[in-house]
Amino acid sequence: MVERNVGAVLVLDDRGRLxxxxxxxxxxxxxxxxxxxxxxxADCMTSDPETVEADxxxxxxxxxxxxxxxxxxxxxxxxxxxxxxxxxDLVRIVLEDSAPRGA
Length: 103
Known about the structure:
Elements: E1 8-12, E2 18-23, H1 24-32, H2 41-44, E3 46-47, E4 52-53, H3 58-68, E5 72-77, E6 80-86, H4 87-98
Parallel strand pairs: 4-5
Antiparallel strand pairs: 1-2, 2-3, 5-6
């Protein structure tokens, strides 16, 4: 995560199915619990995270994130992961829609 400068990564099983998400918050909680050197991702990640379908509205995604208290949301088409939406992505959309053009 540090190497790629990202705040979250999706965790997939050997068939490419989403099993979890590892976030900065998950890591901080693990450190607070006394993370040991032999810990693996499965020990720290959020299992079975909330997801949003690719054709969902950004408003729906924002409501899920706000009510769920998280900043990253996996995007799926059926069982296939097709991306991840961040709160930063949503802020950019809102700003683009509300900012005056050419300013």
